[in-house]
């Protein structure tokens, strides 16, 4: 199985085959509009604008699984992203990214690139670990998505190259992106 075997629905409910993105460098990210990491939309959009014409695409998947931080409809999400962050990269329907109802794409991603753990010497990671432990202790025992804005970087051949956890600022991914784009 490959990343290109998956079909998903875009934010407007239309089915999209990920094969459409074959030959591109892809970032797949689970998003939420009421999260402390929501400002990452701005940097994701900057990366998209800077490298889209060179072969980068970002695919955003809203999820309401973490403290109900994405409560709105798909239409609400689309409006929020455009009005607040000028998001032009493709957004998809609200989905579960972990658990029994998880979108199969996210199960595939997390099996390919597991969770490496929190670095508890870093304040942001320590805080996220604490919030996760308090609210969802069961999330800490596997490789699943731990929080909103987990990012997966995929090369032009569909290989899942890296997993970046929520606390990773999208701009810190730029060198990896440039390398995959051969810039």
From TrEMBL:
- All copies of domain Thioredoxin, residue ranges: 1-182
Q: Which GO terms describe its biological process?
A: cellular response to oxidative stress
Task: Please provide the record's keywords in A-Z order.
Answer: Oxidoreductase, Peroxidase
Annotated active site: 35
Q: Name one GO molecular function term.
A: peroxidase activity
Domain of life of the organism in this record?
Bacteria
Residue ranges of the TM segments: none
Record Pfam families: GSHPx (PF00255)
Q: Which PROSITE patterns match?
A: GLUTATHIONE_PEROXID_1, GLUTATHIONE_PEROXID_2, GLUTATHIONE_PEROXID_3, THIOREDOXIN_2
Stored PANTHER family: GLUTATHIONE PEROXIDASE
Q: Which family does it belong to?
A: Belongs to the glutathione peroxidase family.
Q: What is this protein called?
A: Glutathione peroxidase
């Amino acid at each position: 199985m490959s990343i290109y075997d998956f079909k998903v629905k875009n934010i407007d409910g239309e089915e999209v085959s990920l094969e459409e993105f074959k030959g591109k460098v892809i970032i797949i990210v689970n998003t939420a509009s009421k999260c402390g990491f929501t400002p990452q939309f701005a940097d994701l959009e900057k990366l998209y604008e800077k490298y889209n014409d060179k072969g980068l695409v970002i695919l955003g998947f809203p999820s309401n699984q973490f403290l109900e931080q994405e409560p709105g409809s798909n239409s609400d999400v689309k409006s929020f992203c455009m009005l607040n962050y000028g998001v032009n990269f493709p957004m998809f329907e609200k989905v579960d990214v972990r658990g029994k109802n998880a979108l199969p794409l996210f199960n595939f991603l997390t099996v390919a690139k597991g969770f490496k753990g929190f670095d508890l010497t870093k304040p942001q990671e320590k805080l996220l670990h604490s919030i996760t432990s308090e609210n969802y202790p069961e999330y800490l025992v596997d490789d699943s998505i731990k929080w909103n804005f987990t990012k997966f970087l995929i090369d032009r051949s569909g290989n899942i190259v890296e997993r970046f956890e929520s606390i990773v600022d999208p701009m810190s991914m730029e060198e990896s992106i440039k390398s995959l784009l051969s810039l």
